[in-house]
PAS domain S-box-containing protein
Amino acid sequence: MRKLFSNWMNLGSHAGAMLMAPSILAIGIMAFSYFSWNRQMIEEAPMLDVVMEIKVELERTHMHLHEFERGLIIMRDIKDPVALDEVHDQVIFNVDHTIESLGNLNTHIGQLLSGTSSMGDVTLSHLQVKKSSDAELNWRLEALQAAIITLSDYMLPRIKGDNYQTFIYDSENDMMFDVALEFAQAADDRVHEIIGERLTMQRRVFLLSMVFFALMTVFFFTKWKKLKDRHNSSLANLYLTLQATEQSDDVVIIADSNGVIDYVNQRFVEITGYSSDEIMSQKLSVLDDGTIMGDGLPDIQLKKKWQREISCKDKHGKNYRSLTTISAIVDRSDNVAFCEVRQKVL
């Protein structure tokens, strides 16, 4: 009886664990989707930063160029040598920064197309700008690179060395900057579109995972509750059976398929003088002259009911007559697992 009770308890706990396993899996899927979403944002953000840097660098180059040309115009009307030197130094400053900005533009766009640019430390990790697999974005970046190369090829020969002294800002300059800025804006728009599309997909996966998790949790909780209720009901029935057996006027013994005693009721203790602890784990052969083990148990293994009036003995060796009935107790596989020995003392 103790083994039976223990088996029922283990069955309930194992069933609960098995039913909760899919819910844990759903939590894992949801967590993976969430962190994948965050990773997507971290990986796409550097590309957006580089494109924005190119736009800023174009504006900076344009500004230095205007300042440089304005300085040249101002120098023509300055007579004071000291003031002339100051303005000239400012012109050289803007020329140098224009050349530097053009170099930065070529570097940024080259790194963006090859995927070699880095954007510093974010969340303690050094992030690398990855080359985009989007054909449209790559086309726009290549067009931007061509516009930057055209601008550099046009500007650098006119401002390097002493050539800056004869530089004149014309409509050709404006057109080149406008074209480059237009392509930079188009690339920036496409990066935003890509991030939006991918994050939308990630959000959908995340939300679907949450819905899947919620539905799975409800489903398996309902299943688990039904099994738990059935388990508790079976335990209640088992407890009721145990109480009825304990209060029976007949001797009741439960033994396993090998005849090893697992349970005796209070009536057995009163009749034989054995305590429960003394008789537990002993063979049924201690109760009689071997008739139960020799004749009864083989029939029980064949699922046959066995009944006979036999002579039994108590703890002190005193004999008593009993009408002994043995019935098989089968498990879920329909194999004999236990047997019930019921004795009516005559």
Q: What stands out?
A: Strands lie at 118-122, 125-128, 251-256, 261-264, 306-313, 319-330, 336-345.
